[in-house]
Recover the amino acids of this structure.
């Protein structure tokens, strides 16, 4: 199937183009994956924007380096990238226990949408609450919940990213979601969720 | 907080991808440019020019063989001029100068018979 533009091409094809010396393919790949990779890294690193940017840059750098050896069809670029980010974040969290004092205001800025100021304020409060609650979860639970419910990966994909079995993923996401609900239970009304809704 | 509320929170998070600063994008693209694989330029391998001397050297068996050959040549010249005792005694056996030759007259001349009567 011919591709009219680079934006139609699958990730694999773009990576092959890059490996053959096409620099524009790299820009398309970065546009697709960098925001997600950055957001994931920031959530894993407790909202430390600078460190999340370093991790995201390092993950993309590893993608450029592996491009000539990439075998299309063997792995998904997104899964591969998130696996790299997961490992990089784990290493950083292992080295220095995250400073919980890092303010959630440092979390990545979000894209501006065409929404009313009030709706944006509500969403902003909800994001801060969600990030704060995610930050209370154990690292593995947080990874599994974010990958499943925010990044939209399937359980087998998460198993690949986290290098664990599918059953372990199911267990982590279930426990993580319960813990998240418990952490947010006292803030339901504050976040605009009406009783009985 | 129930599952529905949580799902709503997750949906809000999905709608708000992190914004990538221009600085970060520039760094990532600089990395991509630096690691951009260059198309390989295929060039014809240069044909090695073989000189006369190198072909002779190869025919003789290389530099080692040439060194051995030179040594043997010089040794031969030296032995020829110096004629060491050991060599002379050996060559004397083969080509002795003082050999005594005795002749036997197997067909005497007629004059010899006349003399003896």
């Amino acid at each position: 199937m011919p591709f009219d533009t680079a934006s139609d091409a699958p990730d694999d094809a773009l990576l092959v183009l890059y490996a053959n010396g096409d620099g524009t393919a790299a820009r398309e790949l970065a546009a697709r994956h960098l925001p997600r990779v950055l957001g994931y890294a920031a959530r894993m690193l407790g909202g430390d924007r600078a460190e999340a940017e370093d991790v995201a840059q390092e993950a993309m750098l590893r993608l450029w380096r592996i491009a000539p050896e990439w075998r299309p069809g063997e792995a998904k670029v997104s899964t591969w990238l998130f696996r790299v980010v997961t490992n990089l974040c784990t290493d950083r969290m292992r080295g220095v226990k995250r400073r919980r004092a890092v303010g959630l205001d440092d979390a990545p800025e979000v894209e501006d949408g065409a929404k009313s100021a009030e709706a944006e304020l509500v969403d902003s409060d909800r994001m801060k609450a969600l990030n704060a609650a995610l930050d209370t979860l154990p690292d593995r639970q947080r990874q599994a919940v974010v990958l499943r419910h925010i990044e939209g990966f399937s359980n087998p994909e998460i198993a690949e990213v986290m290098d664990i079995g599918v059953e372990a993923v199911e267990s982590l996401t279930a426990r993580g979601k319960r813990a998240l609900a418990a952490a947010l239970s006292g803030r339901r009304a504050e976040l605009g969720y009406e009783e009985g809704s | 907080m129930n599952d529905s509320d949580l799902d709503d929170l997750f949906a809000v998070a999905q709608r708000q991808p992190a914004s990538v600063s221009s600085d970060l994008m520039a760094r990532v693209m600089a990395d991509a440019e630096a690691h951009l694989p260059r198309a390989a330029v295929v060039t014809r391998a240069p044909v090695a020019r073989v000189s006369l001397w190198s072909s002779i050297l190869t025919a003789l068996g290389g530099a080692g063989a040439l060194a051995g050959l030179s040594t043997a040549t010089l040794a031969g010249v030296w032995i020829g001029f110096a004629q060491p005792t050991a060599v002379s005694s050996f060559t004397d056996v083969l080509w002795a100068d003082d050999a005594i030759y005795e002749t036997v007259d197997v067909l005497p001349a007629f004059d010899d018979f006349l003399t003896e009567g």
